[in-house]
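WARN no homologs supplied; continuing
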Amino acid sequence: MDNKNFKILIADDDPDIARLVEKELKAEGYATVTAFDGEQALSRVKSDDPDLIILDLMMPKLNGFEVLKEIREKFTDKWRPVMIVSGNSDLDTVRKCYDLEADHYLNKPCTAENLIRGVKTMISLIPMRIK
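OK structure emitted
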């Protein structure tokens, strides 16, 4: 499938980081939408139906843990891989993300190459997870 058929939600409260991630994804041909807080992220999941979500943990209104929990509980119509990209590499934080059913975890700062590799890996798994 062509990259332009995949929509990726970037949820990060730092506009500079969101723009950088968006630029890298668009260069690879992906469609993107952005959210700058947890409430907006959930709203975007509902309105834009992204195929993949890149989620920061430290955001206003709702943090990334709360957003991930809501996604897994309320948006069960299809599997959406969720990649956590966070500056917090504490083992308990990583474990909590996986307990909440995160699919991948990258530490900030990460290279564009690692981000794109993670996105491609997650997208390649979508056909295997279709209900």
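The two ends are 18 Å apart (CA to CA).
OK
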